[in-house]
Amino acid sequence: MELKLMNGSARNALLLLCLHTTFLFGCAGKTAPSPNVYFQSEVAAVSNNHSTKTNQLSVIIDLCVQKMLNSENGITADTTIAVADFVSLAANYDRPSILGRYFGQAFLTALHKAGVSTVDYQTTGDIRVTPEGNLGLSQDYLELSNEVDANSVLVGTITSAPSGYNVHVRVVDNTSKRVIGADQFFLSKQEVNDSVRVSL
Length: 200
Hints:
This protein is α/β, with parallel strands linked by helices.
């Protein structure tokens, strides 16, 4: 029996039927994205944003520490630094602000990362700072080094400016009262607000 070739109309109809069937089966084989995919993307974006904002201030503090360590004023491998909370010159110096505590802990971390022997002042209870930003220790400067094996102290002051904060940092030798490291830097209020907020 001889097979006849299909005419143009029949051939086109068969082609359309095949394409339609392929499309249906192709769609059926695909699954909708899981809601978790969108959630994970949002979490990753927030995490990256958190890291960027926190790192901005961390880099500034790390650079400040490196500048003090690279100076020739007396910070050596034998220096052990007790780190105090920073104080605002416009506030009650006996009660450091959240920002003051943040700076104290941030500098403690930066010094530790740089390989400097450090002591957290909160474990001593001996350090205080005057309203003028001067360092003071309970009873005697030698008391701290005798009790907690720290021969110097890092203190800092924060002064508010219209667009941000001026931060002054110094390391003071307990025995000689000599400043063996000092630096200062400026932070915009936006930088501080972002860094402190995401860190809480």
